[in-house]
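Practice problem: predict the structure.
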Amino acid sequence: MSTPARTSPPTPPRIAPLPAPRPEETESILAALMPPGMEPLKLFTTLAHHPEVLKLLRAMGNLVFKSGLLDASQREIVIQRVCARKGAEYEWGVHAKLFGAKFNLAGERLHSLTFDDKPGELFSTQEQVLIAAVDELCSASAEIGDANFERMRSAGFSDAQILEVAAVAGLYHVIAFLVRTSRVENETFAMTFDALRRAGG
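Answer:
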């Protein structure tokens, strides 16, 4: 792909996670972002330095994960492709581990989605149309062009779903900017680009 997935530099974080004790409001937001009993991710505790950004991320996350019109597999295709295109290994690795197998994005499919310029027969026609649209959003044009827009409609995407694709891609662009600028360290449980390369799909 024109901007290949790459491993994050092995350097300390530029902005370290905000340690406990944290303000009560911040703890409340962190708790709302995580499943019960799970410690907050390093991304979230890093963003805890700026609670308003953390709130924005939570609000957008509610759209993506609770009110979205895309099915979960389509959502993860958008997220994983954006994170791979932008080299956001941290976020890519969390989603690959937590959601990959659950939504049929593991093994050869994940390898192709992450590293191939044009993922092909492993993906349905509708999924290939979705990936092409995401690639355009990640390009210098920053839009879904006329041809891919019509292909999305022909493939069964509603106008509302097309808008959601753009919104989800945009959110994960923002997350890519945040994790790469902060140099958030990978979660210990997460997958890495190198591990997927070694596995070879």
